[in-house]
Design brief:
- α3 packs across α4.
- This protein is an alpha/beta fold and 395 residues long.
- The chain is globular, with a radius of gyration of 25 Å.
- Helices cover 32% and strands 27% of the residues.
- Among the domains are: 70 residues, no CATH class; 133 residues, 3-Layer(aba) Sandwich (Rossmann fold).
- Strands 3-2-1-4-7-9-8-10-11 form a nine-stranded mixed β-sheet. It has a six-stranded mixed β-sheet with strand order 13-12-14-17-16-15. A two-stranded antiparallel sheet has the order 5-6.
């Protein structure tokens, strides 16, 4: 989408085209295009409207009902913060006394919108003209223009005086194809500028990719990893007085938010395989808080390199999935297949830590046929591969 297309979508004809396209989002591409043309919509406008309708449909998972009023770019939607995460971050900033925020690299405006909803005055800065214009539309469409201003500018050139806090979510995609960037030095704005904010603004929150190297965590910062519904979605570095712990794992579900904190360097005891296996949430694993989690369930590891935790009781926890261990076998495809067939197991859930086996390949090799089900945990203990046959313990 370019600025001309954006302008056309926001005009009367564009609004009507979007309304029609929204009704065709589940229709085949060619059939939808034909329907839009039959409605008298120009081909270029029809294509832009249909693209936006499909982006809105995808965006509903992140933005909820707000997505129906918003506009998007593909790259912007990919990197945009989920509303549940952005709202939670905004409340943390507000509760820390933040009243004015500069959002550097605001993208489509997800975090700016959340901060505004929390009562914070926001100045959003976005280098890409189209993305900035889309963010401006979103602010206006959601009725937050009095609390958010959007400026198209290079974040590295903006004055930072007078703001209580800075938030930065550097772009992690580059080129026309939107290829993912893994080296923080290739972020936009660049990593050295991003980390320089810590010495220039009282409170700084940085959103980064969840796979970021722990060696890049700024001194004195709190590093938080966030999962939503079991999916690891982001990491954030909290700098300044808002930092409360060296490491934090935040696990968000429909029902609750659970937080686990620790130093990120403690080692869990090695106790061997127990009757119950706990597979920690990815936020716990990435935050290096497996030792702290093990303490909460009175458990330990079978191998110090593998993040499966074992305990004597199925302690209820929001930080892991629980399984009752029925069998512990040195891995043998022939023996495993025979045992599962003997028990009438036809469906298996396969998870792995420390195993080179591919779950889908193993599932095909097992060639199971039965009415029963089981969970398999592929792992290793020492240098030896093992498979644990388990049954899930309901939450």
């Amino acid at each position: 989408m370019d600025l001309d297309q954006l302008t056309a979508l926001r005009a009367g004809a564009g609004t009507a085209a979007l309304a029609t396209a929204d009704q065709l989002v589940d229709t085949d591409q060619l059939a939808a295009a034909s329907a839009l043309r039959a409605a008298g919509i120009a081909p270029d406008l029809a294509a832009a409207a249909l693209t936006q309708a499909r982006l809105r449909h995808r965006a509903a998972g992140k933005f909820g009902s707000d997505a129906a009023a918003m506009l998007f770019t593909r790259a912007g939607l990919e990197q945009a913060t989920r509303r549940v995460v952005a709202d939670r971050r905004a409340l943390r900033l507000r509760d820390a006394g933040v009243r004015t925020l500069i959002d550097l690299g605001s993208g489509l405006g997800a975090d700016s919108l959340a901060a505004a909803r929390a009562g914070i005055q926001v100045h959003a800065v976005e280098a890409d003209p189209v993305t900035a214009a889309v963010a401006r539309h979103n602010v206006e469409a959601l009725g937050l223009a009095e609390r958010v201003t959007v400026r198209c500018a290079d974040a590295t050139t903006v004055k930072l005086d007078g703001y209580d806090a800075a938030f930065c979510d550097p772009a992690r995609r580059s080129g026309a194809a939107g290829r993912r960037v893994f080296d923080p030095r290739a972020y936009s704005p660049p990593w050295d500028f991003v980390t320089s904010l810590i010495d220039r603004v009282p409170v700084v929150a940085l959103k980064v990719a969840p796979g970021i190297d722990h060696a890049l965590i700024p001194a004195g910062a709190e590093a938080e990893w966030v999962s939503v519904g079991g999916d690891l979605v982001e990491a954030a570095f909290w700098c300044g007085p808002v930092a409360r712990a060296p490491r934090r794992a935040s696990v968000l579900t429909d029902a609750r938010v659970a937080e686990l904190t620790g130093d990120g360097v403690s080692a869990a005891p090695v106790t061997g395989v127990g009757p119950y296996l706990f597979d920690p949430d990815p936020a716990v694993v990435r935050a290096h808080l497996v030792a702290e989690f093990a303490t909460t369930v009175g458990g330990g590891l079978a191998d110090e390199r593998i993040a499966y935790v074992y305990a004597d009781a199925p302690t209820a926890t929001p930080f892991a999935q629980r399984f009752a261990v029925t069998d512990v076998l040195p891995f043998s495809l022939k023996r495993l297949r025979a045992l599962l067939r003997e028990r009438g197991v036809g469906r298996v859930e396969i998870r792995k830590r420390g195993s080179a086996l591919t779950p889908e390949t193993l599932r095909k090799q097992l060639k199971l046929n039965g009415d029963g089900s089981a969970s398999l945990a592929l792992t290793r203990i020492g240098d030896d591969p093992f498979v644990l046959i388990c049954q899930p313990v309901p939450r």
